[in-house]
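[SOLVED] Predicted holo structure with magnesium ion

Edit: marking solved, answer below. Original request kept for reference. I posted the sequence and ligand SMILES and asked for the 3D complex as structure tokens.
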Amino acid sequence: MIRLAGIDIGNDSVKLVLNGQNEPIIIPNVISPGYERHILQEEESPLQALDVMVYSPKLKKKNQRYFVGLLASEDQDNAELEDTDNKATSDQALIVALTALAYAAATSGPSQAQPQPGGGFVSADEAEYIIGTGLPVRTFAQFHRTFEERLVGEHEVTFLSTPKLRGRTIRVNIRRAIISVEGAAALYHMATHENLQVRNEELYYGCIGVCEIGALTTDFPVVKRMSIDNQFSTGEQLGLAAYLDGIIRDVEDQYGYKFPSRAKLIQRIRREDYTIQLLGEGQADIKPIVDQYFSRAAQKIVDLIRKRWKKYPDIQCFYVLGGGAAALRPYLIEAAENMRLRFVDNSELQNVYGYLKLARNRLNQLEGGATVV
Ligand SMILES: Nc1ncnc2c1ncn2[C@@H]1O[C@H](COP(=O)(O)OP(=O)(O)OP(=O)(O)O)[C@@H](O)[C@H]1O
Ligand SMILES: [Mg+2]
């Protein structure tokens, strides 16, 4: 059985959708060195405690233990991606992606592994994949081959202290990786139905501007009749992360309270929970700090959009997407004044659905409809 999946290897989080399943799997793109942990109470779900050994010929350290995602985001020694990292070549990006693919395989479909009495499993599970994924506008031309070569091949993930998956080994065999452009894939998803027929003629046949605000990059593809405009599409090495880091720094300076990771801060912002607990019973409201950074971020993005639109007045409308659009939406609307910007719900998931559809589209073209699930 070959699984078809869309996977968005985001600098903030890796999102994965299996063909035919609607619910995405989301894993924060954070890792830390793994070790034997003292478990007082086992976590409820595997995603809360991804503790893995990852083997891949493409990794510098070939057989290493990592905490991945939520478990790592609690750890003071964790690593989140930096703006010097390139997801096409980054080991961390590959580690989290392989963990996501292994988790998806382990929790969907039957297992060939026989549980042994006394725990553990006799054999490994094979998980064959065809994946759709993507790179930022500015990295795509130079790195899409490298990225494809890193992904395609045989890798192996063993779950260690992860609840429900303890001792399971998944051999992740990526048969083919179809690489698209971030932001443009999102637009393809918005313009088409699940069966890939045109859903929105304006988007499908028009000239559309996209501003996709990620954690470390913001992509500005211009898409005309579903083709990427080579001349006008660009990207910026700038995303929400720099502003989150600023907020974390200021909160620490002012209140002595340190968020262990951007992921922890954004969880608070998503819940609109701006009150932090101070040592010795006090509380503080960090909303003014968030407002200050997010207004500044929004102003910068709006200026960039205005500049792009002026350069290319054929653009009919501008969509603001990515997790950054969700975080900055009210600030962007305010900064945009009378320039109309378009938003969609779940903007951070539009790419991954787009990658899956583009992969399906390519397979249909190549094989006249291969039998993939
Ligand atoms: N629904 C949401 N509300 C508020 N903030 C969000 C939401 N979803 C994501 N974010 C935040 O927005 C930022 C961008 O998220 P997104 O998932 O688009 O980034 P990414 O795709 O992982 O990164 P990149 O595109 O740079 O590789 C992150 O800092 C993330 O924490
Ligand atoms: Mg992204």
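OP edit: The CA atoms of residues 127 and 233 lie 36 Å apart. Thanks to everyone who chimed in.
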